[in-house]
């Protein structure tokens, strides 16, 4: 895979709205200053791409404009990285404007850059994976850099630092604390810390050999299920199938699958349905193991465990549960295509 150059102090980072356009709405205006401040404190210079702040309606109506921002970020030699504003549910609509554009594909290959986001950004990550670029399933601008607390969550901040020269992501440890997601997003909550809890479980090996390895591939389970079924948008399956966005079974052989659930907190029945979509594709027959993120606010924490075992239906396939990434807080970064060894509840990068 193409590995982008690491970030450095002074690196310019493009902020793009590839899915939901909430960053440009008046309700988010105070968050922009906060996110900019946090990024600058880390030595990064955010650059809002031309359409990133045009608001929900414009972003919804103009997937071509979203795609043009991403292309412009790759074309700008002064930009070292690209961070997504937030997720959403229809970034798939940008795909025809990107994959069918040979100039965009050439830019990705000739100017590989750090690309980071999570949730619906799964679709963008899988597109880049298909194009051969390593990207990073990790924090977004609005939800993490612009967190309302007095600072970014330390575990999350430290994970971002691994993208810089002189730092490496060598191992992922369980976070000592986990934090509830916010219920009130008004400006009055600025400076109010998230409710925290001591981590009581750590990474849990639900089944299988305690030692397994492979290259990482995956994302948000709801996003993957939607692109495979078209349940959220019927045209999503059509578009994603057209471009082969989700890898075929033979492409997944020997990989380590990572999946996590979103803020919708799918019921155990819905969780099973989503896992079944992967099973139908032969995913669990191909991969060497499965890493599962901490459930959102630990809702259905215990209920998901038997569902995973029942649907996967292979006691020999390792399942490592309760890992800090995706929609849970705090979160680490998972690089697509990176080799990992999962050994005795540890995740070590090779």
Automatic annotation (TrEMBL):
Q: Which Gene3D superfamilies match?
A: Class I glutamine amidotransferase-like (3.40.50.10740), LD-carboxypeptidase A C-terminal domain-like (3.50.30.60)
Coiled coil location: none
Q: Where is the signal peptide?
A: none
User: For the LD-carboxypeptidase C-terminal domain, which residue ranges apply?
Assistant: 213-339
- UniProt cross-references to Pfam families, sorted A to Z: Peptidase_S66, Peptidase_S66C
All copies of domain LD-carboxypeptidase N-terminal, residue ranges: 13-138
Q: Which domain of life is it from?
A: Bacteria
- Recall the GO molecular function terms of this protein's record: carboxypeptidase activity
Q: Could you tell me the keywords of this UniProt record?
A: Carboxypeptidase, Hydrolase, Protease
State the similarity comment.
Belongs to the peptidase S66 family.
Q: What is this protein called?
A: Peptidase U61 LD-carboxypeptidase A
Biological source species: Ruminococcus albus (strain ATCC 27210 / DSM 20455 / JCM 14654 / NCDO 2250 / 7)
């Amino acid at each position: 895979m193409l590995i982008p150059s690491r970030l450095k102090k002074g690196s310019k980072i493009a902020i793009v709205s590839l899915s939901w356009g909430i960053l440009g709405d008046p309700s988010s205006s105070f968050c922009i200053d906060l996110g900019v401040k946090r990024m600058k404190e880390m030595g990064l210079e955010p650059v809002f791409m031309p359409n990133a702040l045009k608001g929900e309606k414009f972003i919804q109506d103009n997937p071509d404009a979203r795609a043009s921002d991403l292309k412009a970020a790759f074309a700008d030699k002064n930009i070292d990285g690209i961070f997504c504003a937030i997720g959403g549910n229809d970034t798939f609509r940008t795909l025809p404007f990107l994959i069918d554009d040979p100039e965009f594909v050439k830019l990705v290959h000739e100017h590989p850059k750090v690309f980071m986001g999570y949730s619906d950004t799964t679709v963008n990550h899988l597109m880049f994976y298909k194009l051969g670029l390593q990207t990073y399933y990790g924090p977004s601008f609005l939800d993490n850099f612009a967190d309302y607390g007095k600072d970014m969550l330390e575990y999350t901040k430290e994970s971002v630092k691994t993208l810089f020269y002189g730092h490496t992501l060598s191992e992922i440890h369980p976070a000592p604390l986990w934090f509830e997601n916010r219920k009130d997003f008004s400006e009055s909550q600025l400076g109010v810390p998230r409710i925290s809890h001591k981590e009581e479980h750590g990474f849990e090996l639900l089944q299988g050999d305690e030692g397994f390895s492979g290259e990482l591939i995956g994302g948000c389970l709801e996003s993957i299920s939607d692109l495979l079924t078209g349940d959220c948008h019927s045209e999503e399956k059509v578009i994603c199938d057209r471009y082969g966005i989700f890898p075929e079974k033979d492409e997944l052989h020997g990989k380590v699958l990572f999946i996590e659930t979103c803020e919708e907190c799918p019921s155990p029945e819905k969780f099973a349905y989503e896992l079944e979509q992967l099973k139908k594709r032969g995913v669990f027959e191909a991969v060497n193991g499965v890493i599962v993120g901490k459930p959102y606010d630990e809702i259905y924490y215990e209920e998901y465990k038997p569902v995973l075992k029942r649907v996967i239906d292979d006691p020999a396939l390792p399942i490592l549960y309760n890992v800090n990434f995706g929609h849970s807080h705090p979160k680490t970064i998972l690089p697509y295509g990176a080799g990992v060894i999962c050994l005795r509840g540890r995740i070590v990068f090779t």
